[in-house]
Amino acid sequence: MESSGAEILLESLMREGVEVIFGYPGGVITDIYDKLPSTKIRHVLVRHEQAAVHAADSYARASGKVGVVLVTSGPGATNTVTGIASAYMDSVPLVVLTGQVPTGVIGNDAFQEVDIVGITRSCTKHNYLVKETEKLAAIIKEAFHLASFGRPGPILVDLPKDVIARKAEFRYPRKVKMRSYKPTYEAHPKQIRKAFELMLQAKKPVILAGGGVISSGAHRELKTLAEKMRFPVTTTLMGLGGFPGTHELWLGMLGMHGTYQANMAVAACDLLIAIGARFDDRVTGKLDEFCPDAKLIHIDIDPTSIKKNVDIHVPIVGDCRNALVKLLNLTAKEFKDRVRGGASDHRAWLRQIKAWRETYSLKYDQAKDGPIKPQYVVEEIYRLTKGNAIITTEVGQNQMWAAQYYHFTKPRTFITSGGLGCMGFGLPAALGAQIAHPKKLVIDIAGDGSIQMNIQELATAVENKLPVKVAILNNQYLGMVRQFQEIFYNKRYFATSLTGAPDFVKLSEAYGAVGLRAEKPSEVTPVLEEALRIKRPVLIDFRVEQEECVYPMVPAGAPITNMLLA
Amino acid sequence: MMQNERRTISVLVDNEPGVLSRVTGLFSGRGFNIESLSVGETLDPTISRITLVTTGSPPIIEQIIKQLRKLINVIKVVDLTETEFVEREMLLIKVRAEAASRAEVLRIVDIFRCKVVDASPHFYTVEVTGSESKIQAVLDLFTPLGIEEIVKTGKIAIARSKK
Predict the structure, then answer these.
(1) A538 pLDDT exceeds 70?
(2) Distance from C-alpha of A260 to C-alpha of A244, rounded to nearest angstrom
(3) Cβ neighbours of A307 in B, within 8 Å
(4) Average pLDDT over residues A460-470
């Protein structure tokens, strides 16, 4: 029996275990929307296609599954580009389905036509234009395989209207057959051995964990290794939650807004073990002065990440978890004789780190009657949720305060647009995380600037009964840029004041959500407690100190030891 | 500063629309340079071979090769510069051939084992194949005679068979 392209598509999605699609209908994909209600797949109607991608991104990161997006051609497709680019930078497995005009008119400037395959070529892991209905099932199978296999990433599948409408035999391939793309999962034993020898000799070792630790599920192995070897651990922004933020070996985040002890330790270390991190410039600062005396071990599934920015002494291509398991096997075998035998005695190093830690680079003063400090809000959120919430963020100061003051102890609990730094991410991301974990508490730590980039998604939250909480750290500025203007441009504030913002409480109520406000420090805790009690979407407008800055801070392009402390 | 190296890279790819732009987009998007590029089907019609010549420091070349391998449609990447290989490019050149210079044109054609592929009262069109240096030598000799127009292919290259 033959099925239409739309039926083939939906059946293929179900075979891939898709439970939810974030989407927005349009002319050329009405055939798919016509069949969608007769499947078991839940459709979440967002209010803007960019939000659909951020929500799917966050769903994928919170659940460990592949996120799926369905949008129409032309503007629907182009609206996804920012979300796709964000997911690409953060290596998030997504399948983005876009509608396309019929194959016969492709290239003729048809109504709502855009070459989305061309547009997204450089920000997807791979993309397809499906030309024949007969090939649709195989392409969908391949798309899901590619999204999550090797280094994860977004895959776009462009679906012309006639391909969706035409009928063909449904045959779902059991296996993906590809003659190219064979990522190396197994870390090479020789390289593992070399890494282990370096680890034993190190006097000043540091582990730097990135998002790869979380996506490969290597957090347990990382903790075991760190504890066994007594190696201090720092992470990138994407790696937060990959190592317990309350652990004695935890240094705090590294980089531009990293802690004093993390930056000093990395700068002075003699061995840096980078795991699933790609040495972003926000992490390394000035490259020439990035851990100049250290030997570097780099574990990553993507060979292009290795030696891209920094020279590596022991490259290990492979899955982070697989490589850590192999390293642990070696430590187990040789632990007694060599590790305990004093081969890796670095007690002096740990004492040095303890001394650096005493600089308390994460500090602020919350005066009783003064304005609310944004850091205080984040710390109160941490205290009241006992660290058990999933935190999403917008981008800017709010994001950095969330990263610094909420102590993430579990993977997949901190979801932020890391590589692209994409404003408008947090609210749709909160929706995606809430759908992945209906029973968990999900909080978007937001800024008044970023939240206005996708605030329409409050409607999606209300309609879908998603009880997310949005905590706006409202300083009436584009805070991070204002901070740059304050420090590097002699306080010449321009185009960063957001005085024309709406009344967020009223706006929230207009959407049918709950709006709360705190204007004094004494109101922070009661307002948060109230928000946590309410089982509906709540938006809280925290009127925080307007000119508070994120510290520590390393000026862009400076060495990471060149830190401005509070 | 690390010395720039010139590399000839052979890339086997799926013979599908858009694959070439993925490869070239990789170069332009990362600011790498392509000096020469040629593409054609292989014995297997589903596979094409791209031969490209690029220049960069060793770390840049390493990145280029790794990035090429990362493309989903790329089946195999070989840096021919690491082995013995044969390379050719082709030039079609329209050179002025009036009564006074016709014999000289033909002499050069003969010396360099080129071929006249078209003739008109005022011009010969000559086909030249060979290494870059041979093609340059032919161009240098024809220049004083008056070159009307030239067209050149990118380089194609193949590894030498093992002895």
Answers:
(1) yes
(2) 18
(3) 59, 62-63
(4) 98
Contacts of A529 (CB under 8 A, 6+ apart): A384
Residue A304, chain B, CB below 8 Å: the answer is yes
Among the partner residues B21, B25, B72, nearest to A181 by beta-carbon distance: B72
Complex ipTM = 0.89
B14 CB within 8 Å of a chain A CB = yes
Residue pairs between chains A and B whose CB atoms are closer than 8 Å: 36
Which amino acid is it at A510?
A: A
Q: Structure tokens of B18?
A: 């858009």
- For A207-238, write each residue's pLDDT tens digit: 999 999 999 999 999 999 999 999 999 999 99
**Structure tokens, A433:** 């995380």
Question: Is A231 one of the catalytic residues?
Answer: no
A13 Cα to chain B: minimum distance (Å): 21
Q: Exactly one of A11, A19, A35, A112 is catalytic; name it.
A: A112
Q: Does A118 sit within 8 Å of B69, measured CB to CB?
A: no
pLDDT at A360: 87
- Kindly state the average pLDDT of the residues A120-145: 97
Rounded CA separation A213/A234 (Å): 12
Closest CA to A61 of A22, A93, A88: A93
User: Tokens 């036509």 — which residue?
Assistant: A113
Strand boundaries in A10-144, DSSP class E: 20-23, 42-45, 67-71, 94-100, 126-129
Confidence of residue A130 (pLDDT cuts 50, 70, 90): very high
A472 falls in which pLDDT band (50, 70, 90)?
Answer: very high
Judging contacts by C-beta atoms under 8 Å, the chain B residues touching residue A153 are: none
Is B70 in contact with A118 (Cβ distance < 8 A)?
A: no
Q: Which of A71, A47, A69, A67 is nearest to A57 (CA)?
A: A67
Whole-number pLDDT of residue B3: 86
B33-62 residues touching A, CB cutoff 8 A: 59, 62
Question: Residue A280: which of A55, A488, A560, A54 has the closest Cα?
Answer: A560
Question: Residue A566 has what pLDDT?
Answer: 78
- Which tens digits make up the pLDDT trace of A481-531? 999 999 999 999 999 999 889 999 999 999 999 999 999 999 999 999 999
- At A182, phi and psi to the nearest 5? -125, 80
Q: Are A331 and A308 in contact (CB under 8 A)?
A: no
Token duo for residue B28: 């332009």
Mean pLDDT of chain B: 94
A161 is catalytic: yes
Q: CA A102, A104, A110 angle in degrees (round to 5)? A: 65
Known catalytic residue: A434? no
Measure in Å the smallest separation between the Cα of B77 and chain A Cα atoms: 11
List chain B residues with CB under 8 Å of A178: 72
A182 touches B: beta carbon within 8 Å: no
Catalytic residue among A7, A16, A22, A49: A49
Query: Beta-strand (E) ranges in A304-429?
Result: 314-317, 390-393, 414-415
Per the CB < 8 Å rule, is B66 touching A303? yes
Q: Which amino acid is at B145?
A: L
- Residue type at A51 in one-letter notation: A
Its pTM stands at 0.95
Quote the CA–CA distance of A161 and A71 in Å, as a whole number.
Answer: 12
Report the alpha-carbon distance of residue A545 to residue A127 in Å, rounded.
Answer: 45
